[in-house]
Amino acid sequence: MATAGVGGAGAGIRAVRMVSRGAINFTVGLVILAILWAIGGHLIAANPKTANFAGFGLWPTLQAFPELWSMGKLQNATYASGYRLGTGLLIAIAIGIPIGILMGRVSWFRKLTDSPFQFLRMISPLSWMPITVLVFSAWDHSIIFLVAFASVWPVMYQTAAGLAKVDPAWFKVARNLGAKPLQMLTQIILPAISFDIFTGIRLALGVAWVVLVPAELLGVTSGLGYAIKDARETLAYDHLTAMVLTIGIIGYVLDTVCALLIKRFSWHRGDL
Amino acid sequence: MSIRGVSINIQGLGYRYSSRGNPTFSNLRLEARKGEALAIIGRSGCGKSTLLHIIAGLNRPTEGIIEFDGKKVDGPSSRWVMMFQAPHLYPWMKVAQNVGVGLKFARWPEKDKAERVAEALRLVELQDYADVSVQDLSGGQQQRVALARSLVMEPELLLLDEPFSALDAFTRASLQRDVRSIAKRLGFNLIIVTHDIDEAVLMADRAVIMAGSPGKIVTEIEVNLPDPRTRQDAAVQAMRARLMDEFHAAAQVAGTPFTEEAKQEEVIIDA
Fold this sequence. Notes:
- The complex is a heterodimer.
- Chain A has two domains: about 1-55; about 55-265, MetI-like fold (Orthogonal Bundle).
- Chain A has eleven helices and no strands.
- Chain A has helices spanning about 1-45, 60-70, 75-105, 105-120, 130-135, 140-165, 170-175, 180-190, 195-215, 225-235, 235-265.
- In chain A, helix 3 (about 75-105) packs parallel to helix 6 (about 140-165) and helix 3 (about 75-105) packs across helix 10.
- The radius of gyration of chain A is 23 Å and the shape is flat.
- The two termini of chain A are about 30 Å apart.
- Residues about 1-5 of chain A have low confidence and may be disordered.
- Helices cover about 35% and strands about 25% of the residues of chain B.
- By secondary structure, chain B is α/β, with parallel strands linked by helices.
- Chain B folds into two domains: about 10-80 and about 155-265, 3-Layer(aba) Sandwich (Rossmann fold); about 90-155, no CATH class.
- The model of chain B is unreliable at about 265-270 (pLDDT under 50).
- In chain B, the strands form two sheets. A six-stranded mixed β-sheet of chain B has the order 6-7-8-3-9-10, sandwiched between helices. Chain B has a four-stranded antiparallel β-sheet with strand order 2-1-4-5, covered by helices on one side.
- The interface between A and B is medium-sized, with 21 and 22 residues.
């Protein structure tokens, strides 16, 4: 017990050191980026030829945030984009996980679907836009479809790859101990591949976020993509950069949440 | 725990992996009394592991029948549980969760399940490890968890497929002794597939020797030795020598005689 106590304290100290080192790296990295941005902004503002674009600088951008907030633009744009991203991603997860499990478990299904899925996966999601606006009555639905279409592949393929790595004896043992098919799914398959599923969702999130903003540049009148376009047309460069910064911050936060979920649900030793 | 054994009756059993392939074995006949411990020994490829999987209901025979207490076996059941060469524990579960997973499948109430799991952990002397991650256990401890996971189901028959071959000699010896002692105390049957002659002598009431391709049961030898058995006992050593002779004679009869080299490779003799 005493050994366990010492081991526990040692592990605690190591964890604190790791967290502090991570916090230092995080802060220093961002400070360097901010300094480079501030220098760039200052050079733009100081040059008479580019002074009209001084809004792109760090300080004008930071000053634009309270203004955008008080106008409600920031909240509305974030909500509209968040709704499209969340819905599209949920659809991708709902479709990707079951199909991924089928691909991982059923050999003929994997072989049958390989070529059509690889073919569809390689088509740029935005190239479906002209077709989706004809198919769906609302622009919102078109964008949700594009997000779902773009993000379903990482979820699907990561789930299938995770299942292919699973020790087949786990299924045999479960069957031997009386597991029914649904119990096999919920208590063996899903926990066994939870790491891969969350990794797939993390990758999907990145893809969805990248697709969402350009999709919102077309047609819709809400969302972060639209807000950028609107700011450009009104020459409000500080608003434009503030929206770009918001996209970066939201993307970073969502990715961090995914990484924490992966860590929380992973049973692999030494992950992350 | 209240466990009782089962009488086993296997008649005309045959198996082939594909319809055009050669049979792995055919027309096997094997019987066992309630509570009896059987060891099936034989060279690699004679079909002994396949036979065990079929008895466990994990594979279907191509011919013949298996009956436990006069009832036909047609699939896996928690009444006959198999332990594999590796523990195959679920790494996302703690020790107690691994042990109780079969009871969870059977939808046991949480309180009853916890009591049964605690009892099974006591049997394998891991009662202090209930909340430990299985990834923190040694190979021997993991195999004990796998044993507890099987015992918690109160099986009538425990099937062991070379379950201790990956363990060090010391751990192997202690598990061989413990499994036999628990089986005898609780009264369930054991069927052990092994190519370790010592394991057969230390754990079984009867040794069944398989040989040939397709495999067949060449001979059966009663291992009438008192418990507890240790490698140093003169009677154990004499029985081992006898089994070795029978094993080599069986290979001759089956048409797959051993070279001196093969004898060294195929049969494990622990000093």
